[in-house]
Amino acid sequence: MARIAVIGAGMGAMAAAARLAVAGHRVTVYERATTYGGSVGRFERDGFAFDTGPGLLHLPAVYRDLFVKTGREPLERCVGLTQVDPASRHVFADGTAVSLPNASRAGIVSALDSALGAGAGARWGDFLGRARDAWDRARRPLLEEPLPADVSPFARDPYPAPRTGLLRRPARTLAEVGRRELGDPRLAALLDAYALAYGFDPATAPASAAVLPYMEQTFGTWYVRGGIRALADAVHERCLARKVEFVLGAEVTAVVVEKGRAVGVELGGGTSGDGGPGRGRVVEADHVVAGAPLPALYRDQVLPWESQDEWPRHQSAVRTGRVTVCLALRGARPTDAVHRTVVHSADRAGELRSFGAGRPCDRPTVVVLRPDDGSLRPDGGHESVTLTATVPAGGARPSESPWGEGPDALSPEAVEAFADRMVEAAEAAVPGLRERLLWREVRTPADTYRDTGVFQVPGPALAGAGGTLLPADNRAPLPGLYFAGGWSHPGGGLAHAGMSGALVAGLIVEGADFRGSQ
Predict the structure, then answer these.
(1) 90: part of which helix (H) or strand (E)?
(2) pTM score above 0.90
(3) Is 402:411 a contact under the CB 8 Å cutoff?
(4) Which of 332, 424, 440, 469 is the most buried (most CB within 10 A)?
């Protein structure tokens, strides 16, 4: 039985903790916040409740596997899972709208033909075929196996060029895929929206980001009854059932190193006798799993210099965050309301330019979530709605982010004006929205920083782009130290964080014999 200290109680960290405990290890999780879940947060007021992180689940098989491997009760007995159908409704800048069915390629092709004109569905279907080729090439090595020592093959983009016509050279970016292969600015905007949802700028994201719409449209979109926070609750409860110990409100200030190996963690210790910072209690461990955001752990010098050879390759490339507006509405949710509506930017070019400029645009793409869930509202005469926009988030320090404290930081008035524009856009999905509004709560990357220590939200690992979008290896260069969660392989997102927990547990339990998740 090994002693394992886990830093942070995010979804990847808890997934690793549960698996390690089942393998017979003694696992203790240290979380500086007063709750678990990491970015999977919840805001409650006046009987309304909102997810402040992701609102939908893709690839639920990741968490089904976690629950099967760590106990007798399967995932569906621990949370209520329902397919979202239609998976999404899209309102384009010209007013055209289309509803896309859940996990039905034929249905999606038909819907696009009906809404955008004959041939639109076929072009999208052909694109998905090429995206499937990229998925088949990258899925196993990029998602289910530990990163190899030589990651240079991942620098090449697996997205293929079309096999017919004049377009023989593969597209270099996702935006180029849209321009060259889709033949309709609305289809290009549809493609952009998938990249934005995962925090990627379509103008710089590699063509391999085509796997993101393929993944969602092939494996489906799911809602967890009670919100995604209910999934975090279920994973936490599974950890407790497996005897994982949680120490909340406990900040890890350093990984302890002896003879070139991680041997424990040091907890915050208040002040010393002369008023300076004091050394905290040292907790010995045979293995340390860092599940908190790596940029914050490096910035605050929690991780030792011995591990910084692996200062993640893509950290400088992760420059986006999210603005979330929680809306409490009077009036019942209409029975025909769509769960998710994407209201596309009225200035698509300006939105793409904003990421390079590092400032939010005037007219962002807004994702509107209207879950039909009585547990999120005080009664049937009210509705809770969540709006989300992907925005530039800047660097790791408050002085480097437009949402931080530097001289170029956005003023409170500018933040409220941005939220006003999000609400205005959302009226395309919720008619009469402003007349129904009781109150709103605006959360920006500054709130993400307060909760997690970083302004950014990491996306999943992608091949191509010269390897700059590969997260940190789960194995730190320092023996005994491992990385889990969205900032480590295979990257961000609920499913990917769960995969990272499986990889870390496999590496610790099986060591050099581990060949990947099954």
Answers:
(1) strand 88-91
(2) yes
(3) no
(4) 469
φ, ψ of residue 81 in degrees (nearest 5):
-110, 130
Q: How far apart are CA 446 and CA 253, in angstroms?
A: 22
Structure tokens given for 463: 């091949």
Query: Residue 70 in contact with residue 350, Cβ under 8 Å?
Result: no
Pairing relation of β-strands 382-392 and 252-258?
unpaired
- Can you name the residues that pair with 90 across neighbouring β-strands? 98, 342
Q: Is the peptide bond before 490 cis (omega within 30 degrees of 0)?
A: yes
Report the pLDDT value the prediction gives residue 168, as an integer from 0 to 100.
62
What is the spatial distance between Cα 175 and Cα 351, in angstroms, rounded to a whole number? 12
Predicted confidence at residue 40, as pLDDT, reads 95
The Cα–Cα gap between 320 and 314 comes to 12
In the chain, the percentage of residues whose pLDDT exceeds 70 is 94
Instruction: Report the amino acid identity of residue 11.
Output: M
Q: Which residues contact 395 (CB under 8 A, 6 or more apart)?
A: 319, 401, 455
Map residue 225 onto helix, strand or coil: coil
pLDDT in tens, 81-97: 999 999 999 999 999 99
E strands, 205-319, in order: 221-224, 245-248, 252-258, 261-267, 282-284, 287-290
The answer to whether residues 488 and 294 touch, using CB atoms and an 8 Å cutoff, is yes
CA–CA separation, 132 and 155 (whole Å)? 19
Q: For 351-386, how does the pLDDT look when each residue is reduced to its tens digit (9 = 90+)?
A: 999 998 999 999 999 999 999 999 999 999 999 999
- Nearest-angstrom CA–CA distance, 317 and 457: 11
CB 2 within 8 A of CB 25: yes
Taking the C-alpha atoms of residue 160 and residue 275, their distance in angstroms, rounded to an integer, is 61
Burial label for 432, CB within 10 Å (0-12, 13-18, 19+), is exposed
| pLDDT above 70 (res 448) | yes
Kind of pairing, strands 261-267 and 252-258? antiparallel
**How would residue 271 be classed by pLDDT, with cut points 50, 70 and 90?**
very low
Q: What is the DSSP secondary structure assignment for residue 336, as one 8-state letter?
A: T
pLDDT value at 47 more than 90: yes
HSE-CB at 88 with a 13 A cutoff on CA atoms is 24
Residue 411 burial (CB count, 10 A)? 8
Tokens 């983009």, located at residue:
157
pLDDT tens-digit series, residues 250-261: 999 999 999 999
Which pLDDT score, from 0 to 100, does residue 309 have? 53
Q: What string of DSSP letters covers 404-427?
A: TTSTTPPPHHHHHHHHHHHHHHHT
